[in-house]
Amino acid sequence: MKVAEKSKFYKTKLLWHRIRHGLFLFTLRNALTRIGLDIAPYYWYREIKNGAEKPEIRDSFKDYELCYIGLDEIGIMNNIMGLTTKELEQNLSMGQICIGLKRGKEIAALLFVDLQDFVFKGRSFKIKDKEGYLLNVYTFQAYRGKNLATYLRYHCFELLENYSVEELYSIVSYFNTSSIKVNKKLNAQKLKLYLYIGLLKRYHWNFLLKDYSK
């Protein structure tokens, strides 16, 4: 499969797509990071298993298959999310799970789940037994607009049962309106709102702006 994400004009198209879909502030924040200033408010969410109506795939072809993505296929994501094939393979070897949607032999969308504690922008997050951290949900360009990311996130719990995962958490940028809309569809629960400020990749501050449980 030719990966459209690696085509010559993809970055220009991506910038225009983000602005059209209300992601101007998200794009501006990314630009500021290039000069060493990172201002990033973000939500900490709990994904709710079966918390919404089952989403439908908007495609005349319905032959999508939910499956694990292994080391032999993960190279398709090389440098798409800023990670090399070697780094992706290392993550999987250390226990990260990749779940995807395929149509035929093509990977249409995928996501990753980490079962270990992790650090995000200088802040440590603890992952307990039967919990996981959802990250890097991605739909390939040729399959966008078909509701695949929502469908995949809803159904990924089915395969995660093999790992005894019952609860998923995720982080979403305050400026990423597209992901927030998906979370709304799935009735994901906002737990906390943080503000991160980073300077020159050397100094890191995290502030709790709101605790939605109070």
Automatic annotation (TrEMBL):
Q: Which GO terms describe its molecular function?
A: acyltransferase activity, transferring groups other than amino-acyl groups
Q: Where is the N-acetyltransferase domain?
A: 101-183
What SUPFAM superfamilies would the database entry show?
Acyl-CoA N-acyltransferases (Nat)
Pfam families cross-referenced by the UniProt entry: Acetyltransf_1
Q: What is this protein called?
A: N-acetyltransferase domain-containing protein
> Which species is this UniProt entry from?
Euzebyella marina
Tell me the organism's taxonomic lineage: Bacteria, Pseudomonadati, Bacteroidota, Flavobacteriia, Flavobacteriales
